[in-house]
Write a structure and sequence with these properties.
Blueprint lengths: L2 H4 L4 H8 L3 H16 L10 H10 L4 H17 L1 H5 L6 H8 L1 E3 L5 E3 L3
Antiparallel strand pairs: 1-2
């Protein structure tokens, strides 16, 4: 499973909920990409899909998204043991993602077994 598949949700539904258009998101992603290029301590530049995922989780605040991306990659480098066993593409994680869905009011629901 490609990591990008893990971040797929009904983007149009979420954008509508927040009053954002596809062009708004593209502009925000470009701003964040330019900022990421200046952050030499960060190991990689995430995909557009991953950046949009962070934007969504930060309620489309560019500054909060920058802080979250910085913290995510910084902590990952400072404490690699914490992330070593958290491969999002492992079979256990794939099963967990299959039990996650969006319900009608745009709430993410995760079932546990």
């Amino acid at each position: 499973m490609d990591t990008n598949e893990l971040l797929q949700v009904d983007k149009d539904l979420i954008r509508k909920e927040w009053g954002k258009t596809k062009n708004d998101i593209i502009k925000d992603i470009l701003i964040i990409r330019e900022w990421l290029k200046t952050q030499k301590h960060l190991p990689e530049i995430p995909s557009d899909n991953a950046i949009e995922f962070f934007l969504t989780n930060c309620k489309f605040s560019i500054e909060k998204t920058k802080q979250n991306l910085d913290m995510y990659y910084t902590v990952q480098n400072l404490i690699p043991d914490l992330y070593q066993k958290c491969n999002p593409c492992s079979p256990d994680m794939e099963t967990a993602y299959q039990l996650t869905f969006m319900e009608e009011e745009n709430f993410r629901v995760q079932m546990e077994i």
